[in-house]
Fold this protein.
Amino acid sequence: MHPPLTLHRHPMCTEIIEEFQKCHIDHPIGKFFGECTELKIKLDRCFGQEKAVKRKANFEESKKLRERLQALRKENAEAEA
């Protein structure tokens, strides 16, 4: 299974999604017998790469927020002392 193939949610994979959807339209029966499998594999790889990019960006963002929070805690601890 794959996530919903909405183009706005997967900007990195737009071209492959369009090819995959076209394959399903062009081969309504063949899609059940592996006609579009190669595109499906490309799509899965693209989703994996996209997820890795998002994961890295989220990690960097959380690192910045964590550092900011630690700085605020340190300021509060100094103000109380």
